[in-house]
Amino acid sequence: RNTGMIVVHAHTEPIIRPGDRKGLRAPDETPSGRARLACVILRKVERNIHHAQMTRAMLECVNDGEELKISFQETYEAHGLNVVYRAILDSLIIILSRMYDPVFPKKKLGLDRASLPHLMHLLEDPDTQNQFLAAAWHWTPGMIEEKQMRTCAERLESALDDYSALSASGLGKSVLSGLKWYRDANLAHSLFRGVRRKPLIYGEIGELLEVTSPIIENLSLAMMGKSWADDGSDEAKQRAEAFWAVVETGMKAKKGLFAC
Questions:
Q1: From the CB of residue 92, how many other CB atoms can be counted at a distance below 10 Å?
Q2: What share of the chain is helix, strand, coil (3-state, %, to 5)?
Q3: Residue 204: burial class (beta carbons within 10 Å; 0-12, 13-18, 19+)
Q4: What's the CA dihedral at 54, 55, 58, 61 to 10 degrees?
Q5: Which residues is 24 bridged to in the sheet?
Q6: Long-range contacts for 84-89 (Cβ within 8 Å, ≥24 apart)?
Q7: pLDDT at position 257, please?
Q8: Which is higher by pLDDT, 238 or 198?
Q9: Is the pLDDT of residue 165 over 70?
Q10: CA 46, CA 27: separation in Å to the nearest integer?
Q11: Burial class of residue 3 (count of CB atoms within 10 Å of its CB; 0-12, 13-18, 19+)
Q12: CA distance 136 to 48
């Protein structure tokens, strides 16, 4: 469990090894190699959506916290609150942009990105799917093997169908293009040229997370044989409320807003 402590690890081995080209090994294009890569990507995607839930909860507490906002009214600290809020929002957009970083297999671009689009590209290959179906046979000794394989196949199919539906939907096209535009124009770069688009809508970000969670839940069961219940949002809300409660209490104490 994350205790909130930040740990920085030093590199213990060379980033670029002899024989590597630009520090990258040639990918293993065998079905087993693609399946292993898919598992690596899934673990990173799971961490990303957990971080996104935690970050969104921090924003929601400010958006819904009328008492919190009142405690900052007409104070020097209000500037700091605005800076923190904007930094958290930018962080959420970066996380989602990373999670949905596109890949272009035909052009061999983006194949080093641990993103959901890359993961779904790998899983479109029937031979790669068969690797997980074979592994599902051994999920739980003593259980009906055919049922476990059938569950794996159903979850893979559901994840692929839901992802395709999201990509083709108005929400998917709007929010994913909006994330890319905002990231390129304001975070990765500071652009003053280019086609203007409609503003990125905050509510759509929440909808994207809600649609993405079932996809990851299905993939976790199909690929790892484990249950990934979407209970991170509840924990995220509790942690965020605890943090902002301390902030609100401190501001009220400073302004003398507590009733005697």
A1: 22
A2: 65, 0, 30
A3: middle
A4: -90
A5: 21
A6: 85/59, 88/55, 88/58, 88/59, 89/59, 89/202
A7: 59
A8: 238
A9: yes
A10: 22
A11: exposed
A12: 25
**CA gap 221, 30 in Å, rounded:** 22
What is the C-alpha to C-alpha distance for residues 54 and 233, in angstroms, rounded to an integer?
7
Cβ distance 219 to 155 under 8 Å? Answer: yes
Contacts for 167 with CB less than 8 Å, ≥ 6 apart:
173, 176
Residues in the chain: 260
Residue 105 pLDDT class (50, 70, 90 cuts): confident
- pLDDT at residue number 6: 39
Written as six digits, the tokens of 149 are: 């394989």
Q: Give, in order, the Cα–Cα distances in Å from 230 to each of 93, 240, 253.
A: 20, 17, 37
Q: Nearest-5° angle of CA 223, CA 228, CA 231? A: 165
Q: How confident is the model at residue 12 (pLDDT cuts 50, 70, 90)?
A: very low
Closest CA to 47 of 114, 101, 128, 112: 114
- Sequence letter at residue 111: L
CA 130, CA 176: separation in Å to the nearest integer? Answer: 30
Q: How many Cβ atoms from other residues are within 10 Å of residue 80's Cβ? A: 11
- pLDDT of 17: 40
- Is residue 226 very low, low, confident or very high in pLDDT (cuts 50, 70, 90)? confident
**DSSP per residue, 32-53:** HHHHHHHHHHHHHHHHHHHHHH
pLDDT tens digits, one per residue of 177-186: 888 888 888 8
Of 58, 42, 50, 59, the C-alpha closest to 233 is 50
